[in-house]
Amino acid sequence: MAKKRAIIGFKNITLLPVTKNTAMAYAADGTPISIPYAGSMSRTVIETTQELYYDDDLYARVRDVKGEEVEIRVAEVELPLLGALGLGKWDEAAHTLEADYATGGKEYALRCMTTGIHKELPYYFKWRLFTLDGIKFDNFNTKGSKIQVCEVIIAGTLGRPLFAALQPYTITAVKDDTTNAQEALRVLTEPEVYG
Amino acid sequence: MALLNETEAIMEALSAVSGVASVTRGWPRANAAYPCVLVGEASNAPARYCDDSIMLCELEYDVRIFDKLSARKEKVASDVDDVMLGLGFERVLVYDDTNADVRMKVMRYRGYRQEPGAQ
Questions:
Q1: Nearest-angstrom CA–CA distance, A122 and A177
Q2: Is A57 exposed, middle or buried (0-12, 13-18, 19+ CB in 10 A)?
Q3: What's the confidence (pLDDT) of residue B36?
Q4: pLDDT at residue A159, rounded to an integer
Q5: What is the rounded CA–CA span in Å between residue A108 and residue A158?
Q6: B51 — alpha (psi -120 to 50), left (phi > 0) or beta?
Q7: Sign for the pseudo-dihedral over CA of B92, B3, B54, A138
Q8: Using CA atoms, how far apart are residues A130 and A13, in angstroms rounded to an integer?
Q9: Which is it for strands A88-91 and A96-99: parallel, antiparallel or unpaired?
Q10: What b/e string do you get for A163-186 counting C-beta neighbours within 10 Å, with b at 16 or more?
Q11: A55-94 pLDDT, tens per residue?
Q12: What's the rounded Cα separation, in Å, for the pair B117 and B83?
């Protein structure tokens, strides 16, 4: 009987800068950027639905899914990394980030690992086009009786690469006998180039 | 992986409190010199997970002050509170527990520490 694979964990967020995204080529081959301290990732579908009526009855419901809005929450992000992701300019001498509200819409391939009931059988997710819309700190709260972490929220949009032959995302599973475990792990960081 | 335990560090810090005759982990003997202080771990639990691992631990310690004189006990309690706050703990609960022979004040403190091995 196949082993159970319900997802119970989430970690190893990695961004690879997309250096080419055209109808003729796609390349996610920049230096991988690891985002540690993963907390949660929520996604909301971006879609339009249109209902067509003929003969006074519903003829068809056309659903067009453009992508997903995503919100990633992590415990912390080092200030130089926030600058590298486009939030602003890191001044090493002053140890200060000169930040803005917007990040400039950089494009990345977003990869992560989800752990299952059997730790040796994770899934590796790879979204080929993640447009980073914004990074911000969550609300501040004064200390209370229970600890409350002010998380860093990374928001963006998961879309479709322009290279028509590519699907928007992949999910790689480790086989029950774990023979492809090392190969699957490489999904997190290996570059991808087409065209 | 090593388990976080700051009992020894707390005992060492409280030993420096003026007037305290002894700091122990065990209940004071019948002929103990007063005031004496007992330190015990009350709780050690994960408080925050990140990347599927424990990132922060919540530690709680009970500090019990035994004395036959109420006024002296209160002075020691105040000094103990200063020491514990200086160690990065916050006071959660304080109450008096008294029997016929000895007055006891129980003070509970809570702190958050990074899990050993957490990146």
A1: 12
A2: exposed
A3: 95
A4: 97
A5: 10
A6: left
A7: positive
A8: 12
A9: antiparallel
A10: beebeebeebebeeeeeeeeebbe
A11: 999 999 999 999 999 999 999 999 999 999 988 999 999 9
A12: 27
Cα–Cα distance, A26 to B27 (Å, whole number): 71
ipTM: 0.75
* H-assigned helices in A93-157: none
User: In which residue are the tokens 């006998």 written?
Assistant: A177
On whether the CB atoms of residues B4 and B115 are closer than 8 A, the answer is yes
User: Which class for B77: exposed (0-12), middle (13-18), buried (19 or more C-beta within 10 A)?
Assistant: buried
Chain A, chain B: beta-carbon pairs less than 8 Å apart: 30
Structure tokens at A165: 């032959």
Read off the pLDDT of residues A84-114 as tens digits, 9 standing for 90 and up.
998 899 999 999 999 988 877 899 999 999 9
Report angle CA B69, B72, B78 to the nearest 5 degrees: 135
Q: Are A158 and A141 in contact (CB under 8 A)?
A: no
**What angle (nearest 5°) sits at the alpha carbon of residue B89, between those of residues A151 and B19?**
170
Q: How close B111 comes to chain A (CA, Å)? A: 10
Question: B49 vs chain A: nearest CA distance in angstroms?
Answer: 7
Residues from B contacting A (CB-CB < 8 Å) are: 47-48, 50-53, 55-56, 58, 90, 92, 112, 119
